[in-house]
């Protein structure tokens, strides 16, 4: 197994060094791209009229895999393909925790929607309503297609003037969807006809999309899978909060199921060691540090009960509240002190309104209790869990050449055997 993994990583490294992988040249030319832009380009497997899109399968792979599936080139879509995609997209009331996996390659996701979906994965449920209200620009508790497109364009770096969006709204959106690339590509500013001097200074040029060289934004409008799912095949439906909340919950659950079942391999539970591997999977630990945590757990665990999906899901929902947990710890004046199991469980309850199982908390402490005194190192736990929460995303940007080879070996060691 290790020989095969090593050969796989060696081939990956050779491809990167020689430029055989078709994406490498694009990434080299696009040296100014952010890590998320690079990752979108790497995983996007389809193209229409010069614009790149992810499929639902591409998106799922981009958040759980280090590299995309091998492919020779992107699939070029035509108008007939777009009609078939529209027909395959389920209505909002038919959404489920299987939707992305069911659609597979029968769907398209734009770059700005990719940013939106990424933001959903790390948002606590308390943030769902805030996100919805940002789309609901007229405050009528319903979002129509135009409102969705306005905010989607804002996230992508441009702003339409059918609606008034002030500086405070833009800053709020950037805080919620923190990976927007507004202004990064040098979008010029220009005056809006009839605007006063203040507006002339603050508004960028009126464009449908930024026309860049990488195919992330183009000046044409396509009804993507999300638009059809939210607003119907004719685009006339309105999105209400309950449907929006259900979509966000379904997506979070679907990604967690995909990750969990990779380790469960058909069983009802995963082992405690597998749970530790999932927690440490996307972190920036080196191989020795990674092994140290697993060895610590193996030495201390006395009884293997397994971790159910529901336990795993509740813990991951807690991680989406990690900032609130940090605040709770500071209010306890525990930020620089070890934390007991009781204090840990109480803080989680305050932040999420749910209880973690005692067995799962026990396993977490066995992983992160350095000296076995029953206390958790706050700083160590928070730092590693932040990596886990964002799935080590910042590390993807440097994974080229020799760094890619080392990262590949590391990821193979972390993968379930």
TrEMBL record:
Origin: domain of life: Eukaryota
Tagged with keyword Cytoplasm: no
GO biological process: calcium import into the mitochondrion; mitochondrial calcium ion homeostasis
Ranges of residues in domain EF-hand: 123-158, 356-391
A GO term from the CC aspect: uniplex complex
Coiled-coil zones: none
Keywords: Calcium, Membrane, Mitochondrion, Mitochondrion inner membrane, Repeat, Transit peptide
Protein localization: Mitochondrion inner membrane; Mitochondrion intermembrane space
Gene Ontology terms, MF aspect: calcium ion binding
SUPFAM superfamilies with a match to the protein in the record: EF-hand
Pfam families in the record: EF-hand_7
PANTHER family assigned: EF HAND DOMAIN FAMILY A1,A2-RELATED, MITOCHONDRIAL CALCIUM UPTAKE 3, ISOFORM D
This protein's name: EF-hand domain-containing protein
């Amino acid at each position: 197994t290790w020989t095969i993994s090593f050969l796989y990583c060696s081939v990956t490294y050779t491809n990167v060094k020689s430029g055989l992988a078709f994406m490498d040249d694009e990434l080299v030319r696009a040296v100014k791209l952010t890590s998320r832009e690079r990752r979108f380009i790497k995983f996007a497997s389809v193209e229409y009229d010069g614009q790149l899109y992810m499929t639902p399968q591409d998106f799922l792979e981009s958040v759980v895999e280090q590299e995309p599936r091998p492919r020779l080139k992107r699939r070029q879509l035509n108008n007939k393909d777009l009609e078939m995609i529209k027909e395959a997209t389920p209505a909002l009331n038919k959404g489920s925790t299987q939707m992305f996996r069911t659609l597979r390659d029968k769907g398209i996701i734009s770059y700005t929607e990719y940013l939106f979906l990424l933001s959903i994965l790390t948002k606590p449920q308390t943030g769902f309503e805030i996100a919805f209200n940002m789309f609901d620009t007229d405050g009528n508790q319903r979002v129509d297609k135009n409102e969705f497109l306005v905010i989607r364009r804002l996230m992508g770096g441009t702003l339409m003037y059918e609606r008034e969006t002030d500086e405070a709204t833009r800053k709020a959106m950037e805080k919620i969807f923190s990976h927007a690339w507004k202004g990064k590509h040098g979008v010029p500013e220009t005056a809006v006809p009839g605007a006063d001097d203040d507006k002339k200074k603050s508004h960028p040029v009126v464009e449908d999309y930024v026309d860049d060289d990488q195919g992330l934004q183009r000046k044409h409008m396509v009804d993507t899978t999300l638009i059809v799912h939210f607003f119907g095949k004719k685009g006339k439906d309105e999105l209400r909060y309950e449907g929006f909340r259900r979509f966000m919950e379904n997506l979070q659950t679907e990604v967690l199921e995909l990750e969990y079942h990779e380790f469960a391999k058909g069983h009802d539970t995963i082992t405690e060691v597998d749970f530790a591997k999932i927690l440490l999977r996307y972190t920036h630990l080196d191989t020795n540090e990674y092994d140290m945590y697993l060895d610590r757990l193996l030495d201390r665990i006395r009884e293997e009960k397994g971790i159910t999906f529901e336990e795993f899901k509740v813990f991951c929902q807690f991680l989406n509240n990690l900032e609130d947990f940090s605040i709770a710890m500071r209010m306890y004046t525990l930020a620089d002190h070890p934390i007991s199991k009781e204090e840990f469980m109480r803080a989680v309850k305050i932040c999420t309104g749910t209880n973690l199982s005692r067995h799962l908390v026990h396993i977490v402490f066995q992983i992160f209790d350095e000296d076995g005194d029953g206390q958790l190192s706050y700083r160590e736990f928070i730092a590693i869990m932040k990596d886990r929460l964002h799935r080590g995303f910042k590390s993807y940007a440097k994974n080229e050449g020799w760094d890619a080879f080392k990262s590949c070996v590391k990821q193979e060691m972390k993968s379930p055997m």
